[in-house]
Amino acid sequence: MTGSFEELIGSDEPVLIDFSAEWCKPCKKISSMLNQLVDELEEDLLVVKIDVDKNVALKKKFKLEAVPTLMLFQNGKLLWRHTGLISAPEVKNALRKVM
């Protein structure tokens, strides 16, 4: 990932941030589900995985108290946020509502 986080989320293209941690088993499930989901979605969507243990400033900025946390941004605005396990159909429905 090049550029700043603000540039990334400021994009016209929707950006789904997967805040996770290496030690988190549910994060691994979410990550593989998101990979499949991106292939299925027809919309342009960028998915970026960010390790909260390596990015403490972002963890503090967004008050991330648990992982996995998914956050969808577009044009610098937070459109959707979810913490904890979630199914692929639930993510699809949430993305379709806000995109």
Walk me through this protein's architecture:
The structure is a single chain. This protein is an alpha+beta fold and 99 residues long. The chain has a single domain, classed as 3-Layer(aba) Sandwich (Glutaredoxin). Helix content is 38%, strand content 25%. It is built from 4 helices and 4 strands. The chain has a 4-stranded mixed β-sheet with strand order 2-1-3-4, covered by helices on one side. β3 and β4 form a beta hairpin. The longest helix has 16 residues. The model has no long low-confidence stretch (mean pLDDT 90).
How would you concisely characterize the structure shown here?
By secondary structure, the chain is of the alpha+beta class.
Key descriptive features of the protein:
single chain; 99 residues; alpha+beta; Glutaredoxin; four-stranded mixed β-sheet; 4 helices; 4 strands; globular
State which percent range the strand residues make up.
Answer: 25-35%
Largest sheet composition: 4 strands, mixed
Q: How do the SSEs run, as a string of H and E?
A: HEHEHEEH
Could you say what the CATH topology is called? Glutaredoxin
Strand order of the largest sheet: 2-1-3-4
The low-confidence parts are: none
